[in-house]
Amino acid sequence: MGIASAGGAGRALAEWIVNGAPTIDLWPVDIRRFARFNNNPRWLHDRVKETLGLHYAMPWPNRELHTARPFRRSPLYDRLASRGACFGSKMGWERANWFAEAGQEAETDYAFGRQNWHEAVKREMRATRQAAGIFDQTSFAKLLVQGRDAAKALNRICAADIDVEIGRSIYTGMLNARGGYESDLTVMRLAPDRFLIVTGSAQAVHDADWIRRNIPVDAHVTLTDVTSSYAVLALMGPNARDILGRITSADLSNAGFPFSTICEIDIGYATAFANRMTYVGELGWELIVPSEFAVGVYEALHEAGRDLGLIDCGYYALEALRIEKGFRAWSRELTPDINPYEAGLAFAVSLDKPGGFIGREALVRARQAGPPVKRIVQFTLDDAEPMLWGGELILRDGKPVGEVRSAAYGHTLGRSVALGLIEHDEGVGREFIGNGHFEIDLAGDRQSATAHLKCPYDPKSERVRVDADEPRAAA
After folding, report:
1. What distance, in Å, lies between the first and last C-alpha atoms of the chain?
2. Distance, C-alpha 318 to centroid of its chain
3. Cα 149 from chain centroid?
């Protein structure tokens, strides 16, 4: 960070030592954003030269580092590469950002406007909305928490009630004493004393540390990082049920396999967990597959989906799809300084569950205080041409009120879409959002923007819960 940050860094470090936790969002300098393998001297030798050399280079949007790669590879790496994947890297994992068409170079040409993958992502988003897409999300961190006291311990750590029946999946947050997000994740109950947690790719060390620190010393609970044991294949889109149904004997109807449930099923020759969740706002399943079966499941899905429009999709499409749907992401919209009410995620909080949870008292005070003074709001640009990248200034009636936290081109909506944090000392209520004229400053150009109180794409989430015998709505 440089000597200019020394005073602030010293104070933050002292507060961290005294309080046992940061008093503000310090994720960009948190040692837990690294894993033990990042200390490999040969890897560091090659990587550090590049990062230092880029210090004064042009900060292109989505710029990827090239040294010491490929590093961590999913079982599908070679399969995806053969299909035209252009890879990026997160927590060392090689992840497909987008897929090139035949004859197109699988390499990103950086620009501040539309980059060369714009049409590829459009194709991937259209497939996911209208047919089916498959996303390799193996990089997602997976933590196995088990033991006699696992349910009680996790219920105190998580804001939602996770002491539910076996086979339920719960989206929840882990909050600090201020009510801010330490992480958001999915908790799946596999047995009375066993839970599988799926969290963000960069958060395995951080989340495991937070959970361990908050398990009572006398509790009978163990936590194991099982990230490398499982691949994750997200099968998403209106044809997802038909495709998966061709290679499993499981009942995939709403009655047989409701939303927010997990079940171990047969998939082709493999046996794996299927979790009915979505990060894109479409019907689908996250398939949590033992690593040795990943290639077989991937091939079986492609074979079953060949005539149903199934294609491979990357993380650029995933990001745009989730922003279109208004889904939040940790370290972007969700931070240690933002609580669930400010994030618009009150539904994922169980204030009245037995025993309470970390951060409950702060949330009670926040709810009693009235409309939050800051809030995550979804925006779309009125002009269909410009590209937003994140970090842009948001203005209301000509006055600065916040910044864009995440942005992408929403091909389903036909324009750039963003999630931004806006602030107002007198509260950010419906009137403040609905009655103002908003603009987003894009490199000095003020772009007129519309603030949305409801997600403009499928606001009732009907597409996520469509049953087998219901007609499919067009995207």
Report:
1. 45
2. 9
3. 28
* Residues 6 or more apart whose Cβ sits within 8 Å of residue 238: 129, 130, 131, 132, 282, 283, 463, 466, 472, 475
Q: Report d(CA 31, CA 18) in Å as an integer.
A: 17
**C-alpha span between 430 and 371 (Å, rounded):** 9
Neighbours of 389 (CB within 10 A): 18
Q: Confirm if 260 and 168 have CB atoms less than 8 A apart.
A: yes
Contact between 319 and 327 (Cβ < 8 Å): no
C-beta atoms surrounding 70 within 10 Å = 12
Q: 149 with 155: CB under 8 angstroms?
A: no
Comparing C-alpha atoms, which of 183, 137, 194 is closest to residue 160? 183
Q: Which of 271, 278, 234 is nearest to 250 (CA)?
A: 271
- Can you give the length of the chain in residues? 475
Contact 346, 404 (CB under 8 A): no
Burial pattern 406-420, b for ≥16 Cβ within 10 A else e, equals bbbbbbbbebbbbbb
3-class DSSP state for residue 203?
helix
What confidence tens digit (pLDDT) does each residue in 108-165 have?
999 999 999 999 999 999 999 999 999 999 999 999 999 999 999 999 999 999 999 9
Distance CA 182, CA 337 (A): 9
3-state SS track over 250-276: CCCCCCCCCCCEEEEEEECCEEEEEEC
pTM here is 0.96
Note whether 305 and 121 are within 8 A (CB): no
Please tell me the distance from the alpha carbon of residue 354 to that of residue 332, in angstroms, as a whole number: 31
Q: 255 and 241 in contact (C-beta within 8 Å)?
A: no
Q: Which residues pair with 376 in a beta bridge?
A: 421
Do 249 and 266 contact (CB within 8 A), yes or no? yes
Range 424-452 average pLDDT: 96
Which residues touch 422 (CB under 8 Å, ≥6 apart)?
374, 375, 377, 394, 396, 401, 402, 428, 433
Read off the tokens for 216. Answer: 């009572």
pLDDT at residue 20, as a whole number:
87
Token pair recorded at residue 128: 């996911």
Phi, psi torsion values for 294, nearest 5 degrees? -60, -45
* Contact indicator for 444, 387 with CB cutoff of 8 Å: no
In angstroms, the Cα distances linking 438 to 338, 379, 381 are: 22, 9, 10
CA–CA distance, 131 with 117 (Å, rounded to integer) = 20
